[in-house]
Amino acid sequence: MKTYKETQKFDQWWLRLLLAGVLIVSILPLYMMYREDGFDQDYNWVIFLTVGITFVVVILFFLLRLETKINAQGIHYRFFPLPEKQIPWQDIEECYVRQYSPLKEFGGWGVRFGLNGKAYNVKGNKGIQLVLKSSKKILIGTQNETEVKNVINSYKDNIK
């Protein structure tokens, strides 16, 4: 049987540009005060804390990734740095690839909760829709619609 693996990152050019802009805007006041020798010792910690938090958030965006693996045991997914989750085939009622609207259905990208269940997505509008026997719905984004469909179809007999 086939094993499918996919890793997706937030690597859209416009997101990188936005994050770079946010980082520059947060560092700019620090640079200007340093040049003008206008540091007020009482408020240094606020400026450094703001720049530090912004820097951590920007780095986190570059580290975030969605990892998906489909094999004979089931569907495994992980939104790094969160722990990996596995859904065995026997727990799945339905499994198929579908088109969705990230903004309308889930309010955006990332780990999201919506009326249609939970979504793990990074980019695009295609995803693996899982309907579990417990009636929970999970959508896992994918960039390889055709390949995922083929792998899921090869495991259809495992879904009971």
Walk me through this protein's architecture.
The protein is of the alpha+beta class and 160 residues long. The chain has two domains: 58 residues, no CATH class; 92 residues, PH-domain like (Roll), CATH 2.30.29. Helices cover 36% and strands 34% of the residues. It contains four helices and nine strands; from the N terminus they run E-H-H-E-E-E-E-H-E-E-E-E-H. The chain has a five-stranded mixed beta sheet. Strands 1-2-3-4 form a four-stranded antiparallel beta sheet, covered by helices on one side. Helix 1 runs antiparallel to helix 2.
Topology of helices and strands:
Blueprint: E1 4-9, H1 13-35, H2 44-63, E2 65-71, E3 74-80, E4 85-88, E5 92-99, H3 102-106, E6 110-114, E7 117-121, E8 126-132, E9 137-141, H4 145-154
Parallel strand pairs: 7-9
Antiparallel strand pairs: 1-2, 2-3, 3-4, 5-8, 6-7, 8-9
